[in-house]
Design brief:
2 strands
């Protein structure tokens, strides 16, 4: 299985149904995805920017992101680590 590094713009295309979503999905199909630990925060920023630009789409955007009221954005399937938790520091 191929390993591919995925960035926020690629996942945002998939999450928010952008025009290039199908091409991104085809490129990532069957691959094991790895991403920077800040990915969740980057996607949150994309969601925020889209919501500010298109306030009438707020509910659809937050639902696509997984941060609709009560769901909690940290539960999104794209988050595999918890970068906000403190990690043990080397002695």
């Amino acid at each position: 299985m191929a390993v591919k590094v995925v960035d926020a713009s690629a996942l945002a295309a998939l999450l928010f149904g952008e025009p290039e979503a199908e091409a991104v999905a085809a490129r990532l199909d069957g691959a094991r995805l790895v991403a920077p630990s800040l990915l969740g925060f980057e996607l949150a920023n994309v969601c925020l920017i889209k919501t500010r630009r298109h306030p009438e789409q707020r509910e659809a955007l937050t639902a696509a992101f997984g941060c609709a009221p009560g769901s909690g954005w940290r539960k999104g399937p794209w988050i595999t680590t918890a970068p906000w938790k403190s990690r043990p520091q080397p002695a």
